[in-house]
């Protein structure tokens, strides 16, 4: 981090009044002092590579140049990773330094994030031995090609066909229609030479559902598409410009039998199909990534909050009191209301991610022992937390952007790009509503089990408690609020279930009744997610090893999250819990007191995310607060400022002005 010598005086004052040790917060957030040290050390190594610095901001490059620059930097970054591993005999620590280098999304994201994990998770030991060393060392580059032009959410409806030919022991891949073309996979456009293709398996004219296959699609020397492969890039998007999303179609393209990833289901040489223990295990990579996305949400909320809080400490506008100088905009309570929830939410998502990661690891261990009991709970929880955290994080980033006024609209603030990238997660890896409806299926089953007095899985056991406790009075404590959110979830689950029953009594079949109740079902899933986020984050704060000074501030943040959502969803609480109008008024006052209590520590709290200037990549958010100088410096980099008179003056403006004289 930069020294404070050239720091904006407002930021110096803010840091002086912080009541806790920022380094303690950093170490707690990232796990330990050792983890912080190792992460910083790795970040230093990356940032020391001169070739990774951009000569001009990426926004001035063309679509093609931007991609080429992205690939260039991704390959250098990959060397730094490789060298680190060779030197330390382990992978680099978790870090976000790719953001400082690629800025948008790496063309290798899908290689590292889904291609390699799918081989590891869906391949037999022999298949792993064949492909993993090549993929991990980047001798081959891959992606995860599942979504098609016509189908993304409903993957049983995918149209790519893999027909087994027992004579040659090969699968023949075909995309018979336009809608069957793969569409979206990152890196597919012009980067990868391999992919995991998810296709419908046919043997002797019989369909056996969707399965993952490895296909080499480009020549390793020339990079030309192999015969029978039609591949290209899908064009500019809201974000993800350097992710190189692409399309792909096969025409009688043959791959050997061993290229079907066969850890779960198998196709024997003679064409016999052997079912796996659970066909949904084929969806495993998606579950893993959904868990990871909750962690990403923490990062994006932290990034936007750091930029907006530091900017708000530096920016002065108008007066709170006419007799005093112009106020720091951070002193307006409305500004605190916009920003502190982003700081608090980053901590909540981080704790939820760590909790989910544990659940994921446990279930993977159980699956390796053929025990599947907890898979439905993992799937349901990953779906709803991914859906709710990504949408909330997108809204928080946008609120931080708006809180920076006009300057938040500048690309150089890095908030527009951050919004584009954050909000993409609402759609990718499972569209929000679709995932919430998956969780709703689980909730309906849990509810039916609760009615029968059965034992429920831990994440839904509150449904049973709520059944018993519904008459207890409301308590205006954090624990009471957590219970309140559980009551809301309980009430919404019950109402959705009863709505389905009502339609069925009217003669509708279950599917139609489900559709008619689906707005309520989605809301029940959202309420369930909120109950989990509140419970998990409050428990994490209560059991943390922080010093009293830090603990006080972390508790304030967690309480802010609880009271913010109580006030946002007060209608639900009035409907489904025993909260009263008076309780809500007390909580409204409490919320405002929390904003005031957190205010002196606001800059310290965002410093505690330990995001370097290079990662923030923002004129508004740098550690030294030189906001106006950086805005001007960045503006001067515009190609339009590299010449005094632009040629368009002579070509268009002058002729127009002269014509106007005639
Ligand atoms: C630790 C983490 C580390 C790293 C990751 C970190 C960061 C991320 C890195 C990289 C990635 C970044 C960007 C990625 C870019 C984007 C990639 C993509 O988008 S890839 C494509 C993703 N596509 C989807 O997500 C599709 C969504 N659709 C589906 O998943 C399914 O179609 C759906 C589940 C909606 C429905 O499936 P279907 O077969 O129709 O099932 P049905 O509804 O009939 O349900 C049947 C039955 O099965 C249960 N079930 C469904 N899915 C699962 C599952 N995954 N696991 C377990 N069980 C499952 C379902 O609950 C139901 O059960 P019941 O019958 O109710 O008992
Ligand atoms: C930036 C980005 C990167 C991506 N990267 C990849 C990649 O690398 N590999 C890959 O394979 N895919 C990738 N995808 C595709 C992504 O996984 C899909 O877009 C996503 O799963 C949503 O599917 P869809 O586009 O078909 O949406 P749709 O399902 O068509 O959604 C449209 C609307 O229909 C509604 N809807 C659909 N089904 C239902 C239902 N059953 N009930 C109620 N409402 C419903 C949805 O709620 C939504 O409102 C990427 C997408 C994006 C945006």
UniProtKB/TrEMBL annotation:
<feature type="domain" description="Acyl-CoA oxidase C-terminal">
    <location>
        <begin position="478"/>
        <end position="658"/>
    </location>
</feature>
<dbReference type="InterPro" id="IPR055060">
    <property type="entry name" value="ACOX_C_alpha1"/>
</dbReference>
<feature type="domain" description="Acyl-CoA oxidase C-alpha1">
    <location>
        <begin position="283"/>
        <end position="444"/>
    </location>
</feature>
<dbReference type="InterPro" id="IPR002655">
    <property type="entry name" value="Acyl-CoA_oxidase_C"/>
</dbReference>
<dbReference type="InterPro" id="IPR029320">
    <property type="entry name" value="Acyl-CoA_ox_N"/>
</dbReference>
<dbReference type="Pfam" id="PF22924">
    <property type="entry name" value="ACOX_C_alpha1"/>
</dbReference>
<comment type="similarity">
    <text>Belongs to the acyl-CoA oxidase family.</text>
</comment>
<dbReference type="InterPro" id="IPR036250">
    <property type="entry name" value="AcylCo_DH-like_C"/>
</dbReference>
<comment type="pathway">
    <text>Lipid metabolism; peroxisomal fatty acid beta-oxidation.</text>
</comment>
<keyword id="KW-0274">FAD</keyword>
<keyword id="KW-0576">Peroxisome</keyword>
<dbReference type="Pfam" id="PF14749">
    <property type="entry name" value="Acyl-CoA_ox_N"/>
</dbReference>
<dbReference type="InterPro" id="IPR009100">
    <property type="entry name" value="AcylCoA_DH/oxidase_NM_dom_sf"/>
</dbReference>
<keyword id="KW-0443">Lipid metabolism</keyword>
<dbReference type="InterPro" id="IPR046373">
    <property type="entry name" value="Acyl-CoA_Oxase/DH_mid-dom_sf"/>
</dbReference>
<dbReference type="Pfam" id="PF01756">
    <property type="entry name" value="ACOX"/>
</dbReference>
<feature type="domain" description="Acyl-coenzyme A oxidase N-terminal">
    <location>
        <begin position="21"/>
        <end position="141"/>
    </location>
</feature>
<dbReference type="InterPro" id="IPR037069">
    <property type="entry name" value="AcylCoA_DH/ox_N_sf"/>
</dbReference>
<dbReference type="InterPro" id="IPR012258">
    <property type="entry name" value="Acyl-CoA_oxidase"/>
</dbReference>
<protein>
    <recommendedName>
        <fullName>Acyl-coenzyme A oxidase</fullName>
    </recommendedName>
</protein>
<keyword id="KW-0285">Flavoprotein</keyword>
<keyword id="KW-0560">Oxidoreductase</keyword>
<keyword id="KW-0276">Fatty acid metabolism</keyword>
């Amino acid at each position: 981090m930069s020294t404070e010598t050239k720091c904006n005086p407002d930021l110096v004052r803010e840091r002086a009044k912080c009541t806790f040790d920022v380094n303690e917060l950093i170490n707690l957030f990232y796990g330990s002092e050792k983890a912080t040290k190792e992460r910083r050390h790795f970040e230093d190594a990356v940032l020391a590579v001169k070739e990774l610095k951009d000569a001009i901001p990426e926004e001035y490059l063309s679509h093609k140049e931007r991609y080429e620059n992205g690939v260039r930097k991704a390959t250098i970054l990959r060397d730094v990773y490789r060298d680190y591993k060779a030197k330390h005999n382990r992978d680099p620590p978790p870090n976000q330094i790719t953001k400082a280098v690629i800025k948008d999304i790496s063309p290798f994201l899908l290689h590292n994030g889904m291609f390699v994990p799918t081989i590891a998770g869906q391949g037999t030991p022999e298949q792993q031995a064949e492909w993993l060393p090549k993929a991990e060392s980047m001798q081959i580059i891959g992606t995860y090609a599942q979504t098609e032009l016509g189908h993304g959410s409903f993957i049983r409806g995918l149209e790519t066909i893999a027909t087994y030919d027992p004579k040659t022991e090969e699968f023949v891949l075909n995309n018979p229609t336009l809608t069957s073309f793969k569409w979206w996979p990152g890196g597919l456009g012009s980067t990868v030479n391999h992919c995991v293709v998810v296709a419908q398996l046919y043997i002797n004219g019989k369909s056996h559902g969707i399965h993952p296959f490895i296909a080499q699609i480009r020549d390793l020397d020339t990079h030309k598409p192999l015969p029978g492969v039609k591949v290209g890039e899908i064009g500019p998007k809201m974000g993800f410009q350097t992710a190189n999303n692409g399309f792909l179609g096969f025409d009688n393209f043959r791959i050997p039998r061993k290229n079907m990833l066969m850890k779960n289901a198998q196709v024997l040489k003679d064409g016999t199909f052997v079912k796996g223990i659970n066909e949904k295990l084929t969806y495993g990579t998606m579950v893993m990534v959904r868990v990871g996305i909750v962690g990403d949400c923490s990062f994006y909320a932290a990034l936007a909050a750091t930029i907006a809080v530091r900017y708000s400490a530096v920016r002065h506008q108008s007066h709170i009191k006419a007799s005093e100088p112009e106020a720091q905009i951070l002193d307006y309570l409305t500004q605190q209301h916009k920003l502190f929830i982003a700081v608090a939410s980053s901590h909540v998502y981080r704790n939820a991610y760590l909790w989910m990661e544990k659940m994921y690891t446990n279930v993977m261990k159980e699956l390796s022992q053929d025990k599947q009991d907890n898979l439905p709970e993992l799937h349901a929880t990953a779906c709803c937390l991914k859906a709710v955290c990504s949408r909330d994080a997108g809204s928080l980033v946008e609120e931080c952007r708006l809180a920076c006024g006009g300057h938040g609209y500048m690309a150089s603030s890095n908030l527009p790009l951050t919004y584009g990238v954050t909000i993409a997660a609402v759609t990718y890896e499972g569209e929000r509503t679709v995932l919430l409806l998956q969780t709703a299926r689980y909730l309906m089953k849990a509810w039916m089990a609760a009615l029968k007095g059965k034992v429920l899985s831990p994440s839904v056991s509150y449904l049973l408690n709520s059944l018993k406790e519904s008459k207890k009075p409301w308590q205006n404590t954090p624990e009471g609020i957590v219970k309140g959110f559980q009551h809301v979830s309980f009430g919404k689950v019950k109402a959705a279930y009863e709505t389905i029953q009502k339609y069925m009594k009217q003669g509708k079949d279950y599917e139609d009744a489900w559709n008619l109740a689906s707005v309520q079902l989605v809301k029940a899933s959202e309420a369930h997610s909120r109950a989990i986020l509140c419970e998990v984050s409050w428990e994490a704060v209560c059991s943390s090893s922080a010093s009293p000074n830090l603990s006080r501030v972390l508790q304030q943040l967690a309480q802010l999250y609880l009271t913010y959502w109580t006030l946002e969803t007060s209608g639900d609480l009035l409907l489904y819990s025993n909260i009263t109008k008076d309780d809500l008024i007390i909580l409204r006052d409490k919320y405002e007191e929390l904003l005031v209590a957190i205010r002196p520590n606001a800059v310290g709290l965002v410093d505690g995310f330990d995001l370097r200037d290079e990662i923030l990549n923002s004129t508004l958010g740098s550690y030294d607060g030189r906001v106006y100088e950086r805005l001007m410096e960045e503006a001067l980099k515009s190609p339009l400022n590299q010449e005094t008179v632009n040629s368009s003056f002579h070509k268009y403006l002058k002729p127009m002005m002269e014509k106007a004289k005639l």
